[in-house]
Amino acid sequence: MTSFGTLPAGPLTARLSGYRMERDALGRSAARVFRLEGEGLPALYLKIEEAGPFGELADEAARLDWLKAAGLACPDVIAREGDGGRNWLLIGALPGSDLASAAALTPLARVELLAQALLDLHRLPIASCPFDHRLEKRLPAAKARMEAGFVDEDVFDAARLGKSAAALFADLERLKPGDEDLVVTHGDACLPNFIALDGRFSGYIDCSRLGVADRYQDIALACRSIADNFGEALVQPFLDRYGLPAPDPARLDYYQLLDEFF
Known about the structure:
By secondary structure, this protein is of the alpha+beta class. It contains eight helices and ten strands. Helix 6 packs across helix 8.
């Protein structure tokens, strides 16, 4: 277990009394994530990031509050703190295991749960969602991250390794789809960001990129995650369960390309 170190005085510090924490290294978030446990206490997660223009913890807190109000399961926001140098976000832990590691379920059951979770999210009315992630917003955000040095060319997908971020961004502009099939998207629809308990979906996590965007924002990343975790054979059952049995390959590739910048 890890010690808490220096934390700001306030509700967050008071809420941690009796807890010990352990680093959770799953995922590619720029924030440090810790799981908190204590005798007789509910499990929590603490996220810590350096303050700056590309921080995501404030975005995550706002989206969790909105998603909870919309009636979908996600962690409770317990406390937020910032001191100008760092930001902290304390949230509840959902019961169960993420869909990448829920070994009690078959891979097929997990991809079907993922499909249903995305259907439920995508059915929310876009007019009610205040978070705009359409391409006219996301492409400038991608460019800003690239110009600030926040795009790591060493972790590009295998098909794009060895290419520069600038070359990929030129492809994003050149290949931009002419229209968007807008829904409320999770934004990072990979298996580890969806939780299940006793064979049932129990909630969405890591929601900092949730917003109105083309449904392929989620479908593309879900297909990639399924192939990486379970093999290509389970991509089609996912698509069938979602109701998109013959997706547009160009759009799948485009949104996977866009994800290289986030």
